[in-house]
Amino acid sequence: MQKEVKNSLNELAIFDDVVKIYDAEYINKIRQTIEKISEIHAADINLYDLEGNLKVSSLPLPYNKGVVSTKMNPLAYYHLNKLKEIQFFTEENIGKLNFVSNYVPVIDDSGREYAYLSIPYFTSESELKKEISNF
Prior knowledge:
Layout: H1 2-11, H2 17-20, H3 24-41, E1 46-48, E2 54-57, H4 61-64, H5 74-82, E3 88-94, E4 97-107, E5 113-121, H6 125-133
Antiparallel strand pairs: 1-2, 1-5, 3-4, 4-5
């Protein structure tokens, strides 16, 4: 599913990737794409800019209501932005709800990062391992 989201974002490329993540028109296109993929796969998808600020979420209500921070998990941000890892898994929680999130950078055709993608997994460990093996 991550590959599908990344490919869809790159297909929307119309100008400099780093700039477009801040463009309102582009964000609306991204939102539509992410909502469609989220619905198909019955999964939440979050997209953050390079500063770790939430730009698009397939489930915006908890963020809009202030229940969940609009900032990316600091540990995930450190691993992707500073250590330049290509993927980072971390356990997270919202209240008593525990889950695992997978964070990956979104990279343009020239190899530059322009966003971070997060997919929280509320499923079983076996389903998570199956998803990981799709890489």
